[in-house]
Design brief:
Structural class: mainly beta
Number of helices: 4
Order of helices and strands: HEEEEEHEEEEEEHHEEEEEE
Distance between the termini: 14 Å
Mean pLDDT: 88
Length: 275
């Protein structure tokens, strides 16, 4: 289950806990010195260790992250603080970063770092499309036998400003990446090609992504020498498709939101499978 769904479920049932293996607690009793459990991204208020290790010369070493480092909250755990209140701890990652960097990183799988307001500040992404997987075409389509979705090429923007492109063949190899709305940190996906982004701007439903080298497979728009742009616009229309009919129902349902990328049709969606 992706992190967005976990936050929504926690809000519905009134819990102050998200993530795998967390202990339930009443949100109203959580100490005021902790951030709430449904925070997606934070920045550190000081240099500190947060359970991240980096591989160097074949060995993993703990990283002391700098002040103002952007971190993704992987999960949180609320528990008794021993004084009649509730304390919150968290597990952190760098979030979805570029492949070369991501493959050197290792994260703790338990929420053990105190999630205090003194150490962390809640933030929202200035470019909300980051980590969204954009697939070519007007929506998911079924293969010739209607047994699964037909793969298409796609791309996403990482948190550390890289466009990572995946060919149709690359998408066909990874059902999770092709069938999910967001890339995540538990799966490190090797891109077909990538490029460093120089600037990202957002206005309304449109995000403009600037970079200095055309990325093969994308509808690059050349503005000048060494200056290319993707203009990504949410069309605010949706679609859905039933796949693999079984006993008058479907084993899989695909749903999506329509976008354009430099005027070409793309979509952002997911495939939900039956039990």
């Amino acid at each position: 289950m992706n992190r967005q769904k976990q936050w929504w479920l926690a809000a519905v049932v009134g819990l102050a806990v998200t993530g795998i293996g967390a202990t339930t607690a009443n949100a109203a009793t959580t100490s005021g010195k902790y951030l709430s459990g449904n925070v997606g991204y934070v920045r550190t208020k000081q240099a500190m260790y947060v359970g991240i290790s980096k591989k160097t010369n074949g060995k993993y070493k703990q990283v002391k992250v700098k002040k103002n480092t952007l971190l993704a909250v992987g999960s949180t755990l609320s528990s008794d603080d021993g004084n009649g209140g509730v304390k919150t701890t968290a597990m952190f990652t760098y979030g979805v970063v570029n492949y070369k960097r991501a493959k050197t990183l290792k994260y703790k799988d338990m929420a053990t770092i105190p999630f205090t307001k003194a150490n962390f500040k809640r933030v929202s992404l200035k470019a909300p499309i980051r980590t969204q997987v954009f697939l070519a075409g007007k929506g998911y389509t079924a293969n010739s036998t209607n047994t699964k979705a037909a793969p298409t090429a796609g791309f996403y923007l990482t948190l550390d400003n890289y466009l990572q492109y995946y060919s149709k063949a690359a998408m066909a190899k990874d059902r999770y990446l092709f069938g999910s709305r967001w890339a995540d940190t538990t799966n490190v996906y090797k891109p077909t090609s990538s490029v460093k982004v120089s600037k990202v701007t957002v206005k309304g439903n449109t995000t403009k992504v600037d970079y200095n080298k055309a990325l093969q497979g994308l509808p690059n728009r050349k503005l000048s020498k060494n200056h290319y742009r993707l203009t990504i616009t949410n069309q605010q229309t949706t679609g859905s498709l039933g796949i693999l009919p079984v006993d008058d129902t479907f084993d899989a349902i695909a749903s999506w939101t329509n976008y354009t990328v430099n005027g070409k049709a793309y979509h952002f969606g997911e495939i939900e499978y039956g039990n």
